[in-house]
Design a protein that fits this description.
2 copies of one chain form a homodimer. Chain A is of the alpha+beta class and about 80 residues long. Chain A is built from 2 helices and 3 strands, in the order E-H-E-H-E. The first copy, chain A, is elongated, with a radius of gyration of 17 Å. The N and C termini of chain A lie close together (about 10 Å). Strand 2 of chain A pairs antiparallel with strand 2 of chain B.
Chain lengths: ~80, ~80
């Protein structure tokens, strides 16, 4: 079994209005010194052993469905989980 | 300057309909062997040096605003960035 952690973030050049809203909201709550907030997605996929090439499969899933490569970057970590 | 990475995930006991939708969508796209998908949030905060106790500040921000402790778990990593 594989546990895959996928991180999807907006590219640096893309504006992040959601992050700006959170930043302003934190300031309203009295938190100072926050320069920037950027918001992304975090996904945990559990794959079973039938998946042959996990790395290639996850890469393709990211490109095709999980991220929008035009405005988003992604990275992932694959972790093999041994059933107990 | 500090770079803080915050990961917010739904608690194990909470249903994740968004994750199920992505899982079904991946299956529709022909990806087999996916047992579960769970979706969370990933946030990158940039804090400046004026923040005294970064760890405590981030914990409080998570509890009060960034996560909903009733249904979500969070974890974070603080990284000190040296300006060049």
């Amino acid at each position: 079994m594989y546990k895959v952690k996928v991180y999807v973030t907006l590219r640096e050049s893309v504006l992040d209005p959601q992050g700006t809203a959170v930043k302003n909201s934190l300031a309203t709550h009295g938190y100072e010194g926050i320069q920037e907030v950027r918001i992304g997605k975090y996904m945990e996929l559990t794959l079973d052993e039938s998946v042959k090439d996990v790395d290639a499969a996850v890469k393709e899933m990211c490109e095709r469905l999980l991220a929008n490569p035009v405005i988003e970057d992604y990275r992932y970590e694959v972790e093999e989980v041994v059933a107990q």
